[in-house]
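W.,

You were right to be curious about this one. When I first looked at the sequence I had no strong expectations either way, so I just let the prediction run and decided to look at it fresh. Below is the sequence, 74 residues in total, followed by the output.
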Amino acid sequence: MKLTLKLNSLDDVKRFIEITSRYGEALSLANGRYVVDAKSILGVFSMDLSQPVELICEGEDENLKKDMIPFFAA
């Protein structure tokens, strides 16, 4: 599953990390060829957040999709 997200502020990143940390499966955040652990605050802050990023999850998780709604890129 891939979701395109936009993290617009420091608070968005904090909420995003709180949410992803609740999930047991591996979650990655990608921007072009650059990929980081979506549960790592340092990894997320090391990305160019002025552009949309892609959340990558191996399976289909409807709860994760619902939790990510506030971050969906327009």
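Here's what jumped out at me. The domain at 2-71 is CATH 3.30.1340.10 (Histidine-containing Protein; Chain: A;). And, maybe more interesting for your project: The mean pLDDT is 92.

Coffee later to discuss?

I.
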